Amino acid sequence: MSAIHYEKNADQIVILTLDSTGQSANTMNAEFRDSLDEVTQKLKAETDLKGIIFRSAKKTFFAGGDLDELIQVQPEQASNFFQMIEALKANLRTIETLGVPVVAVLNGTALGGGWEIALGCHYRIALSDPKTKFGLPEVTLGLLPGGGGIVRMVRLLGLQTAFPYLMEGKQFGVEQAKSLGLVHDTAENESALLEKAMTWVKANPPSTKAAQQPFDVKGYKIPGGDPKTPAVAQILAIAPAMLRDKTKGCYPAPEAIMAAAVEGTQVDVDTALRIESRYFTQLATGQISKNMIGTFWHGLNAIKSGASRPADIAKWQAKKVGVLGAGMMGAGIAYATAIKGIAVVLKDISLENAEKGKAYSHKLLDKRVQQGRLTAEKRDQILALIVPTATAADLHDCDLIIEAVFENQTLKAQVTQEAEPYLAQEGIFASNTSTLPISGLAQASQDPEKFIGLHFFSPVDKMQLVEIIKGQRTSAETLAKAYDFVQQIGKIPIVVNDSRGFFTSRVFGTFINEGMRLLAEGVHPAQIEMAALKAGMPVGPLAIQDEVSLTLTEHITQETRRALQAEGKTLPESPVDDLIHCMIHELDRKGKAAGAGFYEYPENDKKFLWPGLSRWQKPHSLSEQDMIDRFLFVQALDTLRCYEEGVLESVIDANVGSIFGIGFAAWTGGAIQFLNQHGTAQALERAQQLEAHYGARFTPPALLKEKAATNQPIQ
């Protein structure tokens, strides 16, 4: 069995067909490495070789590294791993420098290791297909392109042009690849691809200039210059500081990429490749790449394949969707649905309001047209799918109706009862609520089995997650349909059981509250915001609280307190209650929408922290690390409580939901993985320290204690 089929034709051209055994896509696994070694030795032994063509037997060209293998590599295996990477690259380099023309026939997407194989060829011909993607996305998994991608991209494009493709993992299509000079020709079908490759090889005999890389030709200069070039030196003087400001030191991959790229330009190609291998080994054996691969690759793929969806129910598609309420959330849901080609009825109390909701989609689509991402004709087709109305009867035959009105149980009950009679026979009803228990809302429904929660996040057009909430009586069929709809509109579904605040709103609240607690404890607000950023959170808690509005937080706290009292429970008072009361009722600072909150919002200028917050400042002995740990542990421990209580049913949903729903630090791989990556024994010890110093919200759940006893991960 071989991952590369070797065929030499009558023209003395060797065609290497990439075909990983038992896989739908080619990957750089052990089989590929062994096959490449075997093929390289065979090519070296050829006596009358005229050229080499790489092609694929799969639907795509090559998918990249074997992430199942990479996630297993431990620090003690670093030396062996480094040697393995070096051997792989040596074989690719040998083929590249044999002195015969080498062509990559790209019949589809080539990412990561696949694009690195293509870059190792002298000429690249791609199938003209707008769906095809090229690029080096390793940085998004905490890694770097370790198969020569950094070295070759920098030498072909120059440091400045290559950086976004390397440090941001920016992918690009065939046309952009052509404009960058990375793809030399295109063809309309696969037979034409091969034909063009043969013609080019025959036109460029061995030992001619075309049979080597441009950067291997004597006197070659890197586009834009090397680090000694004044213009490049000027950029490199500030680039590391700018990058550090962006990553806050949480993400080692972009920094390693920059270092490998800059260092590699100052030495010969082979030394540059070795430098790249060293940085790659450092990242691959580190914990952060394991965290990110586990969640952003394995976790997302599990969700994509329906990990939390009832398995025995046929796939379903919505053809017509009703949205009740044309405010910011309703308008966003209508846009996200229509852009995927689904008819939408957008209902509000007046036609004028509904038209305003549709205008939101118009604005977003116009922006796409201006950016050249959409044609005016396509925009008009999408807009035609949204029918604004004030008449409930227009909802007839909707497969799904989503209410997105204000967070008030009485109002939600009213719109539910008004709209439900118009559902299609097998249709389902959903509430977009962030805090109100679904089982309570379902009481207004004529069929609670067909009632479910779909919690979208704002702004809907940008936020990828949808939290699906099962009520006590929600049927498996309704859950399956809701899951299918979320995937139909290109969002990421996680499934949770009913409770107040569900998972995301509940845990998100702990982060914001911790920031306000720190303010009440006397910490300078700028220190609070910076500690959150250094923890890996995308935005500081005070800035987020302003966005949410202090009045809404006060309202939710009061509602929660009332609901708990009705159940014979209490919500303990905290210093945050006094802080919020003072901000709203004494200082008239209610948040961004009201024009003033923790931040000032000057017209046509950047927001800044309100100097009046100094009234809470006082001497304290809190270290920045304690603040960082408080932010991360308060969320991670409450996420674990959600899992322990059965609000969450899977660790995958917990990790993915925490990152995509509440912006939990992505470098950790998610809230539960944050505890696992410490080792549960160490996580328990740190939680107990935080509990002793800062209170009961850091009390470790029983499940953490149980796992810590044998230092087993939470699964």
Question: Can you offer a commentary on this structure?
Answer:
The protein has 715 residues and is an alpha/beta fold.
Number of strands: 20
Proportion of strand residues: 5-15%
Which structural class is indicated by helix and strand composition? Answer: alpha/beta
Radius of gyration: 28 Å
Shape: globular
* Overall residue-averaged pLDDT value: 95
Distance between the termini: 36 Å
The helical percent reads 40-55%
Biggest sheet layout: 8 strands, mixed
Q: Would you identify the regions where 5 or more consecutive residues have pLDDT less than 50?
A: none
Read across the widest sheet, the strand sequence of neighbours is 13-12-11-14-15-16-17-18
Number of helices: 28
Secondary structure elements and pairings:
Elements: E1 4-8, E2 13-18, E3 27-28, H1 30-45, E4 51-56, E5 64-65, H2 67-70, H3 78-96, E6 102-106, E7 110-111, H4 113-119, E8 123-127, E9 134-135, H5 149-157, H6 159-167, H7 174-179, E10 185-187, H8 190-203, H9 230-247, H10 252-264, H11 269-284, H12 287-304, E11 320-324, H13 328-338, E12 343-347, H14 351-370, H15 376-384, E13 386-389, E14 398-403, H16 409-419, E15 423-431, H17 438-441, E16 451-456, E17 465-470, H18 476-488, E18 492-497, H19 504-520, H20 525-535, H21 541-548, H22 550-566, H23 575-586, E19 599-600, E20 608-609, H24 624-645, H25 651-662, H26 671-678, H27 680-694, H28 702-708
Parallel strand pairs: 2-4, 3-5, 4-6, 6-8, 7-9, 8-10, 11-12, 11-14, 12-13, 14-15, 15-16, 17-18
Antiparallel strand pairs: 1-2, 16-17, 19-20
Helix pairs in contact: 1-3, 3-11, 5-6, 6-10, 9-10, 10-11, 12-25, 13-14, 19-21, 19-24, 19-25, 20-24, 22-23, 24-26, 26-27, 27-28
